[in-house]
Amino acid sequence: MGKNHRHQKNLKSERSKVKLKAKKPKILPKGQNLTDTSFKVKKIIIREQLKSHELDEIVSRRKLNVKELLTRLQHHNSAVRQEAIKELKEILQNYPPELLSSHLNALLQGISSLALDKERDIRRDTLRVLSLVLSPLSSDQLSPFSEILVSYLRCAMTHINPSIKEDSLAFLDVLVHSCPFLVSRNARKILPNFLDMISSHNHTSTSRQLTTTLSSRNTAIKWRVKVLQRLSSIFNSIINDLRSQKNLKRHSEVRKILVDDDTNCLSFFWGNNLDICNIGADEDEGVLGGAGFSEDDFKRYVKVLVPLMMDSWVEVRPKEVEAEGGSLLSQEAVEMLRVIVKIFMNFLDILEVFDGEEVSEWFGGEVSEGFAKFFGEGFPYGAVKRVERGRKRQGDFGEGDEVGVLQENLGVGVVLAGIVGRRPLGELEREGLEGVVQYVCERLRNWSSNDAPALPILSNFLRILFLKASKNLYGNGVNLGNILRGTISAACRQPKRELQNHLFGILGDIVLDHRLNELQRESSFKNFVKTLPDLLLNENIHDNTIQMLNRAVLQHGTWIRGELAKKQDQIIENAKRIEIIGSPDDKESRLMICNLLHFLDGQIYF
């Protein structure tokens, strides 16, 4: 093969290229070939760090004052907002509330706004801090800022975010606990928004219909129970506020200045007294400046709430009513029954404060038939036993725990007895009351220490039944002899027990009320009055019992005279050493005991 001289050509091309000369390395002089490790430092100054705080200024652990923390509550970063609310909480816990009074408006505005925050943890921390702010404040201090709290509460109740709407119930709990007067006096604004949580307006009429929230984490029934529980707390606040106003009017003279076109000067003080006078510039606003809960408000909310509660109960009550032994309820049904009965009892308390015959009659006619129909059938109620996880025995199914719903059963009785009024009873009302009376008689015979939480409701039922409704019940053919006999038997069984003390107080009120002729003609009541002198031989006696005995001697002397004559000497001797409880004048009470016998021997002690 011939050579193509390719190698020679390559060498020639390489030699023809331009050659670049490399620089010779610079050699440092001796002693200078060292690395310089020195560096310069310049401070970074943030403008906020130049601010100085006074020595007595309230600051957090990060040296931030209240104003700076309130500014950070509106920061776009959720971590900054949460840290600011935590530092505010520390300040409120470590400093007296008087020092923060100058920041009250900014505090309530900034903290309440976080009740609408998108982060659940921030909302929960906010409500804790809000509770710390509100708890030490009086009603006069909070009145100027009520609009701030109510506005944010209503925004939370109507928020498009379901989580914020659910947490609005916790917001209400804080207000009810810390400033119930504020809730009561703004009830007209708050109640409609709460009704919107479980119902919607019916476009064809003024009534409402229940709604189902599919996006909620709770079931519709649980959500309604939660809302109705808060409604009950609102009514409790209204009741307490109405009672306080009633007591205030009773103990002080109300002076109102009416303003007309001819009024040029207003005197805010009356004589030498420094009492505040109310200016009647707008008669519709009332004494509370537009916050009073009137009879018209009561009627309006009864008309709206009662159908909603009945519909809620229809959804959870047993579909089939057992003929004997009552009906068994699920846990959700028990909770619904509890809250509905509580609201109806709130209605009765409001009627008691109003003390109006017309509104009471209206209420009885409005709800009596429906309540007896929906809650009288299947009475008394029992609860289905809960089955614990990991335990599935045959005995755990189908059993009722009647003690678990004792308060609810007694509450149904309280409502039925409270709505009787002076009207003729319908068939459903009569059957419902007779069933409750029979149930209470059985409970009195088998009362145990486990039933103690239901004692106030039992006492309330018996007071309403005997002292308020007995005349109408006897007039409608309902005999109360059995339950009166059972009450007397339970009261005389063990006088030192709490149940017996409650029952004895009720029987004493029957003795003192001369209008209860039907009850006082019962043979069991006569026998009870004959045993009253034995109370004067005990080691101690309450002053109210002495007053009751004095009235019994005057009104029922023919029944009690024989027993007093037999024990006259023992009573006089024991009066010298008996311990008298609750007496303003011990000597006068002992003289009253001795003078109970004056019609026997004509002796009067001084």
Number of strands: 8
- Overall mean pLDDT stands at 79
Shape: elongated
The percent range for strand residues is under 5%
Distance between the termini: 162 Å
- Major sheet details: 2 strands, antiparallel
DSSP helix fraction:
55-70%
Number of helical elements: 27
The largest beta-sheet arranges its strands as 1-2
Parts with pLDDT < 50 across at least 5 consecutive residues: 280-291, 391-403
Rg for CA atoms: 39 Å
- Helix/strand-derived category reads mainly alpha
Describe the overall structure.
The chain has 606 residues and is mainly alpha-helical. 57% of the residues lie in helices and 4% in strands. It contains 27 helices and eight strands. Strand 1 and strand 2 form a beta hairpin. Helix 12 runs parallel beside helix 14 (357-376). The model is unreliable at 280-291 and 391-403 (pLDDT under 50).
